């Protein structure tokens, strides 16, 4: 089978790209020919991730930045423009989660999640779209959301509300940016094996409730958690011309979790 190089000559930016889904997505896009910039707040983790991918012969570099800070986001995109002169793909993947009861959530904790997921998506999408439009690039933006964006779950009001807002940003920016030839879509994740699966030192996929309800009873139709690489494949599809007639879609990548009740 011939090697797939759908992103030859393209430049991609992946936020939160040092671990989990972001890391797998950076690897997938670079593996198909893209030059990829990953960004995040932790320089040590990001630089190690970039070294690992470069060691695989992939064109990946790390640029430190905080998507919750508008000046930091502007610096990231200014760097991309200065070094690469273009941007074809943006993957808004950065997120944060800590389980909190609603009545125990203070404004600082609430804002932290919204600053990263909602404001970060807003800042990055606006900068990306302006750069793409200025260069006449018919680019692709993918927002990494969650099936919790339209569901309720205890200790997750802040996260679920933020992901719901991200989904609305996906739909509205898809509508407004289409005139510039920029396609915006999203993925809604279920249980994926990433560092965010570990809360207070416990991997939720190893708990009895997950094994009993989601696996044993088939709450997840495929009876297992997903892998970051499985999400990366869908994101790569949405960033390619194979998805040319998709606009404002939010694709569930959840092993069938959202079809059960």
TrEMBL record:
UniProt keyword terms in alphabetical order: NAD, Oxidoreductase
Domain Ketoreductase span(s) in chain numbering: 10-183
SUPFAM superfamilies assigned to the protein according to its UniProt record, in alphabetical order: NAD(P)-binding Rossmann-fold domains (SSF51735)
Lineage: superkingdom: Bacteria
Transmembrane segments: none
Record carries keyword tRNA-binding: no
Family note: Belongs to the short-chain dehydrogenases/reductases (SDR) family.
UniProt protein name: SDR family oxidoreductase
Organism name: Paenibacillus spongiae
């Amino acid at each position: 089978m011939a090697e797939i190089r759908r992103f030859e000559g393209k430049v991609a930016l992946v936020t939160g790209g040092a671990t989990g889904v972001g890391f797998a997505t950076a690897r997938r896009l670079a593996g198909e020919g893209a030059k990829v910039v990953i960004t995040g707040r932790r320089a040590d983790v990001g630089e190690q991730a970039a070294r690992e991918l470069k060691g695989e012969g992939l064109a990946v570099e790390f640029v430190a930045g905080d998507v919750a800070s508008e000046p930091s986001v502007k610096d990231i995109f200014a760097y991309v423009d200065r070094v690469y002169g273009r941007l074809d793909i943006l993957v808004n993947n950065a997120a944060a989660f800590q389980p909190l009861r609603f009545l125990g959530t203070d404004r600082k904790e609430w804002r932290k999640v919204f600053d990263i997921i909602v404001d970060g998506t807003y800042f990055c999408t606006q900068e990306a779209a302006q750069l793409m439009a200025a260069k006449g690039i018919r680019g692709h933006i993918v927002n990494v959301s969650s099936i919790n964006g339209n569901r309720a779950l205890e200790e997750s009001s802040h996260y679920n509300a933020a992901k719901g807002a991200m989904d609305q940003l996906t739909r509205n920016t898809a509508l407004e940016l289409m005139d510039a030839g920029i396609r915006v879509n999203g993925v809604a994740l279920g249980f994926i094996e990433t560092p965010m699966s570990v809360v207070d030192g416990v991997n939720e996929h190893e708990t009895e409730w997950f094994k009993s309800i989601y696996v044993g009873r088939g709450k997840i139709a495929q009876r297992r958690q997903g892998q970051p690489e499985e999400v990366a494949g869908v994101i790569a599809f949405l960033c390619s011309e194979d998805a040319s007639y998709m606009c404002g879609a939010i694709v569930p990548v959840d092993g069938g979790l959202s079809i059960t009740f």
